[in-house]
Amino acid sequence: ISSGFGTTPSIVASNGTASFTINVGSGGTASSGVIGLPTATTGWNCLAQDQTTPGVNATKQSANTTTTATLTNYNTTTGVAAAWTASDILYVTCVAF
Prior knowledge:
about 100 residues
């Protein structure tokens, strides 16, 4: 904490963050994937954005544990889980809690 927030602010649970890019590969039938992460106290909150076909695919976190996060791809028109487009690039940021 650099400034503000009130008198003697503190970070009470600093488990870290992770930011990375995923290339989903050749595509196919996979509509979800699990990523391994360092151990968090309670779990992981991940945000993913499809940079290649954002008008077609919306990737969201669908589950988490203290060491993993599951990302699932949804069709933006129907809202139904759907396979990623081949070679889609996902920008992912995860925060431990």
